[in-house]
UniProtKB/TrEMBL annotation:
<dbReference type="InterPro" id="IPR044946">
    <property type="entry name" value="Restrct_endonuc_typeI_TRD_sf"/>
</dbReference>
<keyword id="KW-0680">Restriction system</keyword>
<dbReference type="InterPro" id="IPR051212">
    <property type="entry name" value="Type-I_RE_S_subunit"/>
</dbReference>
<feature type="domain" description="Type I restriction modification DNA specificity">
    <location>
        <begin position="16"/>
        <end position="190"/>
    </location>
</feature>
<comment type="similarity">
    <text>Belongs to the type-I restriction system S methylase family.</text>
</comment>
<dbReference type="GO" id="GO:0003677">
    <property type="term" value="F:DNA binding"/>
</dbReference>
<protein>
    <recommendedName>
        <fullName>Type I restriction modification DNA specificity domain-containing protein</fullName>
    </recommendedName>
</protein>
<dbReference type="Pfam" id="PF01420">
    <property type="entry name" value="Methylase_S"/>
</dbReference>
<dbReference type="GO" id="GO:0009307">
    <property type="term" value="P:DNA restriction-modification system"/>
</dbReference>
<keyword id="KW-0238">DNA-binding</keyword>
<dbReference type="InterPro" id="IPR000055">
    <property type="entry name" value="Restrct_endonuc_typeI_TRD"/>
</dbReference>
<comment type="subunit">
    <text>The methyltransferase is composed of M and S polypeptides.</text>
</comment>
């Protein structure tokens, strides 16, 4: 859907600027917060890589896990990071990227983190749609596949102006809300019959 929208509204403003992904931002790996360290509501809020598949879409604005690992051994978010799973069973599994919009959240192991000055929600949408197959080409391994950020830095990527990024993400968010509202109405009508 994102790719179709981008092609449909790509006439806006000026041409998109193309650079290598590594020129748009920088990567690092999440650290710690393994399954055994997860506790109830106490501890430091954290995002674990499995949650990228099961609990989030393109934006993380709710935290489900907490870890008892010491804060000095964790990588904490600033609220601008785009998270990319590092492990999956299928090359297309890596198109479950999400913007972590909350600061001071521990970013678990098996997650690559991309920091950029671009709109992080637009970046997550781009990773999940336009770059999905580029990511899949760079996956390494058999039954359990790995995606290392060193393989992503040279992918050519185009971004529009920040204003356009904001307008595009707002349009997508509005469409998602409209779809959700209509699905709710559809269920109400179906249940009433």
């Amino acid at each position: 859907m994102f790719y179709i929208l981008i092609n449909a509204i790509n006439f806006l403003e000026v041409a998109w600027e193309q650079r290598k992904l590594g020129d748009w931002g920088y990567f690092y790996y999440g650290h710690s917060a393994p399954k055994w360290s997860v506790v109830g509501d106490g501890g430091t809020p954290c995002v674990r890589y499995g949650e990228l598949y099961t609990k989030s879409n393109s934006k993380i604005d709710h935290i489900y896990s907490h870890t008892n690992i010491s804060v000095k051994n964790l990588k904490l978010s600033k609220g601008t990071e785009v998270l990319i799973p590092r492990v999956g069973e299928d090359p297309l599994d890596f198109a479950h990227c999400a913007w972590l919009s909350i600061p001071n959240v521990a970013i678990g192991e098996m997650i690559s983190v991309f920091n950029t000055k671009q709109n992080p929600l637009f970046t997550a949408y781009s990773f999940n749609s336009m770059l999905k197959y580029e990511f899949a080409k760079r996956v390494e391994g058999g039954g359990v596949a790995n995606l290392y950020y060193a393989y992503l830095t040279n992918i050519p990527v185009s971004f529009p102006s920040m204003k356009e990024q904001t307008e595009i993400t707002q349009l997508i968010e509005n469409l998602i809300s409209l779809i959700a509202a209509n699905q709710g109405k559809h269920l109400q009508i179906k249940n009433a019959l």
